[in-house]
Amino acid sequence: FRWKLITAWPKNFPAIGTGTQRIADSIREMSDGRLEVKVYGGGELVPPFEVFDAVREGIAEMGHDAPYYWLAKHSAMPFFCSVPGGLTAPEHAAWIHFGGGQALWDELYAGYGLKPFLAGSGGSNVGGWFRKEINGLEDFKGLRMRIPGLGGEVMARLGAIPVNLPGAEILPALQTGAIDATEWIAPYNDLAFGFHKVAKFYYAPGVHEPGPALGLTINAKAFEELPTDLQAIVQRAAGDEAFRMLCEMTVGNAEALGVLLDKYNVQLRRFPQEVYDAMLAAGADVAREAAEKDPFTRKVYESWLGFREKIIELSPLTELGYMALRDAQN
Known about the structure:
Layout: E1 2-7, H1 16-30, E2 36-40, H2 51-56, E3 62-65, H3 89-98, H4 101-110, E4 114-121, E5 128-130, E6 144-146, H5 149-157, E7 161-163, H6 170-176, E8 181-182, H7 187-193, E9 201-203, E10 213-219, H8 220-224, H9 228-262, E11 267-269, H10 273-291, H11 295-314, H12 319-327
Helix pairs in contact: 1-9, 3-4, 5-10, 7-9, 10-11
C-alpha cells in the first residue's frame, strides 16, 4: 500500500510537522514496509485549509490537521480540537478515549466518509502576540487578530476582528499590517515562525485554546481496504504521536521561552483580569450557543460539558493542586 499524508502546516515544522513525519515513519516501521506513507506539507499537494476535502475526495488517504479549522463544515468540530475555557490536552485525550468522545467524533466524520484519530496536541496555547500593549477590554476594539475556531468568536465579542490564516501566512500578515496580533501555539513554534521580529508583546497564559488537539483524518474507504493489522498500526501510530508531540512541545516551549525573553527581549505580559473574565464568559456563551445549532452538536456539547464538570471537581485535588504547591516554592 502507498498512501499520501497531507498536512495543514509546513513540512517538518517543530512538533506539528515533525510529528506528521513521525506518524509516517512509525507506520512504515511497524508494518515492515507494507504501508508506505509520503508526507506533503501544507500547500505542496493542496492548500492547508483544503486538507479535509482533499482526504474526503480521495486526493490523499490521510490528513494531519486541527479539527476546528473545519468549523464551517459543522458546528461540533471545535469540540474535537479545543474550546475556550475547555479541556487541557490530557483532559481532552481522556474524554476522547474514555469519556465517549471518540464515538461522537466517529459519528460526525462518518457523514463525510472519514475516520478520525487523535494524533497530537500543542498543549496549552499562550494568549498571543500583539504589536501594542493590552491594558483593558477597550484595546480589542477593531483589533485584527489571527485566531480560528470558537476562539475567534470570543475575540469578536470582545470587539476584535478575527482572521483565519494558515501558519505560513501569519508573519507576512503581521509585517504588512494586515493583522495587528496573532495567536499560534506557544514559544516553541512561535519562535520558529519569527513573530518576535514584528510583535514584542507576548501575552500568557491564554484561555482560548487550553489543549488544542490534532487529528489524523483518514479516508474511510481507504482505511476499510487495509487489512485489520494495518488498521491497528495506523491507529497505534496516531496514538503514539499524541503523546510524543506533547512531550516535544513541553521541552521545546521551556527552551524557546528563555530565548525569546533573554535574546530577543520579548515583553511577557498577562492580560488584565477583566480581559480573562470576559474571555471565559464569552467562551462559555459561544460553546453553549454552538450546541443550540443542531441536535448532534447538542449531544457532543452535553458529553463534553459533563466531562468538564467532573474534571473541574477533580483537578484541585490532583495536578492543579500539586502544581500550585510546587510552584509556590520557587
